[in-house]
Every structure is written in structure tokens, then in C-alpha cells.
Write a structure and sequence with these properties.
The protein has six helices and 14 strands. The chain is an alpha+beta fold.
Length: 275
């Protein structure tokens, strides 16, 4: 089964910081929009939305059919958010993980895990639901929504998520410095089936890639490469499946380099991300 007519969407999350103290501050009450009813970004085309997700801001973009559309959509959304939240008190923080104070997490809703459970394509089971009651750690995702023809085929969706891990999630271990997020979210193979579209939501990536146009473009290119890999009838070697999963879940850079070299995975020409 070939994957045809794919489009990419995304709903990355962002933190706010206080300018006076540098503390991370919950976005609760500062913007409107919820999971159930995101707020359209005023003055932008249909599909650009933003909302609260736990303590973070989450934005959405319209489905993109080209790399150029994909890069421009993220730049447009980020410009809109900065214009609306960067002020004398707060600034946008593109950090992957953050520790919030007890005081700020006492705000109603700050300890609620905003996401429903997701699934593990490798183990073919539901991932455990995350509880935030006993931790002050909060993390941001950079999930990628992939719509395509016949996106209701479970076998194809699971194969795509595994290949996405090969081409994007595992290489990301070499590209971002954060080593905290997978204590809570983003294990290998994490995904959901599309709710309002035919396809999947790949949920293992953090938001590290929204920090530059080059990395945003790399995500598009690598998703295309993963789809090409499947369409050309190629497969992940069975003996590599454990290495891929362990490399992602344990942030094992040696495993990541081994697989990246073996499958000749393209990396962006960038330094280690330390935002």
C-alpha cells in the first residue's frame, strides 16, 4: 500500500517566561482557546489557531502540501504569537522542558495533563496516561499530523510511525540537548490516529525543530523521505527495531549515530540545539 497525496499539519507547544524573574509562567488566563474550541488567529487564513494546553500555548496551522507552505505557516503562526504575548511582562520561550514553581502550579488547571492517551506503534498497545500531580516538570511537543489517502489503514499507519521514528525521532536525539521530556511524553512509536482527517499524528518529537526555518524544513523533508522509504518497498531491519526504540527512549546518542549512518539518514547542517 503506497502513501499518496500527503499533507502535513502540526500543533506545537510553547512556554512563557516572566521578563523580570526569568520564571516560567502558566499561560492560563492570558489567552483564550481550549482543546475543545481553539481560537482562530485574527487576521490569518482559516486553520491558524491558538489555545491553552496545560500551562503552555499551543498553536495549529492549516494542512500544508509543500515544504514552502510548511515553513511559511510556522513562521506566520510564531510571528502572530510573539506579537500578541511578548510585552513588558512576558516573552515566548521555545524550551522543550521547564520546571514551574509550586506557586504557579497552584493555579487551577495547571496540574491537569491536557492530552488524552496515545498509542505505541512498536508495541501495538496504549501508552500509560501521564499524571502531573507529583511533578513540576512540564514539556512541550512538536507533533506532526500526516494526512494521506487511505489513512484509515492501521497497518500502514503503524508502519509510517515506525519509519517516522527512523527518519526523524531517532536523529532528533543528536539535534536537541533536552534529556527530560521523555520522563513524561514522547516515547518511541507514540501516535494517534487522525481525528478529523485520514492519517496519523506522530507524537514523539519535541518542539525543538520550530526554532529555525532550516529545522522546520528538515522535518518536512524527512517526513517525505520516510514516505518514500515505504513507497519504495523498503523495510526496517528487524534487528534494528530495539536499537531505534532504545535510542529514542534513553536518548542514546551512540545508538542514534549507528542507525543514522546505517540508513544514511540526512541531518540538517546545524549545531546542537540548546534553546
Amino acid at each position: 500500500m503506497k502513501i499518496e497525496n500527503f499533507r502535513l499539519g502540526s500543533d506545537p507547544e510553547l512556554f512563557l517566561r516572566r521578563k523580570d524573574t526569568g520564571e516560567y509562567f502558566p499561560a492560563i488566563g492570558l489567552i483564550t482557546g481550549t482543546k475543545a474550541k481553539p481560537t482562530p488567529m485574527q487576521g490569518l487564513p482559516k486553520g491558524f489557531t491558538w489555545q491553552i494546553d496545560g500551562v503552555a500555548i499551543e498553536y495549529g496551522i492549516p494542512p500544508c502540501a509543500t515544504k514552502e507552505e510548511w515553513i511559511k505557516a510556522h513562521e506566520t503562526a510564531l510571528t502572530f504569537i510573539r506579537h500578541n504575548v511578548d510585552n513588558e511582562q512576558f516573552q515566548l520561550a521555545l524550551d522543550v522542558s521547564a520546571e514551574f514553581s509550586d506557586e504557579y502550579l497552584a493555579i487551577p488547571g495547571a496540574r491537569v495533563a491536557g492530552c488524552e492517551v496515545d498509542y505505541n506503534a512498536w508495541l501495538q498497545e496504549t501508552n500509560p496516561k501521564v499524571s502531573l500531580e507529583e511533578t513540576n516538570l512540564r514539556c512541550t511537543g512538536g507533533h506532526v499530523h500526516i494526512s494521506f489517502d487511505d489513512g484509515q489503514n492501521i497497518e500502514t499507519c503503524e508502519k509510517l510511525i515506525k519509519t517516522f521514528d527512523l527518519f526523524l525521532t531517532l536523529p532528533s536525539v543528536l539535534l536537541e540537548s533536552d534529556r527530560e521530556r521523555r520522563k513524561l511524553y514522547g516515547k518511541a512509536g507514540s501516535f494517534r490516529f487522525g481525528k478529523s482527517y485520514s492519517g496519523v499524528e506522530a507524537r514523539a518529537l519535541s518542539n525543538f525543530w520550530i526554532t529555525s526555518p532550516e529545522l522546520i524544513g528538515w522535518v518536512y523533508d524527512q517526513t517525505q523521505a520516510a514516505i518514500n522509504f515505504i513507497n519504495e518497498g523498503k523495510k526496517i531491519n528487524e534487528e534494528d527495531e530495539f536499537i531505534i526504540q532504545a535510542g529514542i527512549n534513553d536518548y542514546n546518542e551512540d545508538f542514534a549515530r549507528e542507525i543514522v549512518n546505517k540508513y544514511q539518514i540526512k541531518l540538517p547542517q546545524t549545531q546542537l540545539i540548546t534553546v
